[in-house]
Amino acid sequence: MKEKKALFSQRLGAFLLDIIFVSLIASIITMFIPVSDAAGKLYDEQNVIMENYINGEISIEEYANNMIDISYDISKETGVITIVSIIVSLLYYVVYPTYKNGQTMGKQLLKIKVVKTNKKDLSMNDLLIRSCFNTSILVNIITVCFVFFASKDVYLTASTTISGIWYLVVIISLFMIAFSKSKQGIHDKIAHTDVVMCNTVKEEVACEN
Fold first, then answer.
1. Contacts (Cβ under 8 Å, ≥6 apart) of 113
2. Which residues pair with 115 in a beta bridge?
């Protein structure tokens, strides 16, 4: 039986659900990581700056400059939390679907799965390549490297540029999935994958387990 391409609504729904699940799992785990005193003070300073701006005590330029400086310092102090979040994302988007019929939790709920376009078995490398482009894993890895090993100016420029490129890739991929004949996003094209419906009784059981 020929596999039917997943609907755009199914893929978008699974994408949003996966973001929620990953964020929830990462939040629960990082709750047990103690925040340093320095990070706590930086969060307090951030709140004060925001209050001063809301009350009209500082200009928008002062607000932006101060927030940028503090955000950089917070990123350095909370690097461990970022690393944990990256690990959670790798386990969720790469390891878990490798052993779950090409499905994340979101795809299981929407009864769709990732398959290879050449009908070969889906590998962990395939899922890793996809995840580098359709999730923020690669962005976070590069960003955390810059925050630890680069100057503030280099970090800010690099993180802004990389994040902007990633958002553009995601938007283009959404349009490609919605309107192209192949229904493949950039990540699918690069990894040679498709997202299809579970269209047999056996596959539907696998979707639910």
1. 101, 102, 103, 107, 195, 196, 198, 203, 206, 207
2. 194
Residue 112 sits at φ, ψ, to 5 deg, of -135, 165
Which domain covers residue 155, as residue numbers?
8-35+78-208
The answer to whether 43 and 74 have CB atoms below 8 angstroms apart is: yes
Residue type, 101: N
The pLDDT tens digits of the residues spanning 116-158 come to: 998 889 999 999 999 999 999 999 999 999 988 888 888 888 8
Q: What is the DSSP secondary structure assignment for residue 3, as one 8-state letter?
A: P
Residue 30 resides in a domain: yes
Give yes or no for a contact between 89 and 136, defined as CB atoms under 8 angstroms apart: yes
pLDDT tens-digit series, residues 174-196? 999 999 999 999 999 999 999 99
> What's the longest Cα–Cα distance across the chain?
67
CB distance 88 to 25 below 8 Å? yes
Note whether residue 41 is domain-resident: no
CB contact at 8 A, 120 and 133: no
CA separation (Å) from 207 to 21, 123, 136, 197, 203? 17, 18, 25, 10, 6
What is the value of pTM for the model shown? 0.85
The structural domain count of the chain equals 1
Q: Bridge partners of 193?
A: 116
Q: 97, 158, 104, 94: which is closest to 129 by C-alpha?
A: 94
